[in-house]
Amino acid sequence: MRSVPKSLLWAWAVATAALYGVLAYGSYVTLPFLARGILGFDMRPFGMPFDIAEPYIVNLTSDAQGYYFGVLRPLDTAFIVALVLLAVALAQRFGGKLFWLSLCAAFLYGAADFVENWLVGLAMGDGFHLIAPEAFEKIAQFTKLKFAALVLMAASLLLQWRRADAQR
Known about the structure:
This protein is about 80% helix and about 0% strand. The chain contains five helices and no strands. The longest helix is centred in the C-terminal third of the chain and has 35 residues, at about 135-165. The radius of gyration is 18 Å and the shape is elongated. It starts with 5 loop residues before the first helix and ends with a helix. Keywords: Membrane, Transmembrane, Transmembrane helix.
């Protein structure tokens, strides 16, 4: 199986990091500014409890909703795809016994993040009053799964890299 050229991997890694930088600024600075200082769902590795989520969503301005759906959510979707593709390409390039673990962790991360974003979109949309408190626990579960898969993906890729480097 041919691997992605190293120069393309570096370019993709830089583009993914730049995309994350823009996303992080929007998530840590712009959205909280529009949402009266409260960090959003994606910025809480252990999820957002209902007692914070409810006032956060109830008090969202239309500007904050517009920014989330018009800017942040598309950026987040692009970042998920970019990061998963980067992880797959790195796993393929490094090879070895941990290839499948890295691959599965990357796809689990992507799936969990997509589901989390879909659930957050339901909660942040106009139908918030229809969302049960249990739904916020479901969002928190996918947030935790997303971050756990991200850590597993990073750790397995790091081990793959170290093993591949040691074999050279």
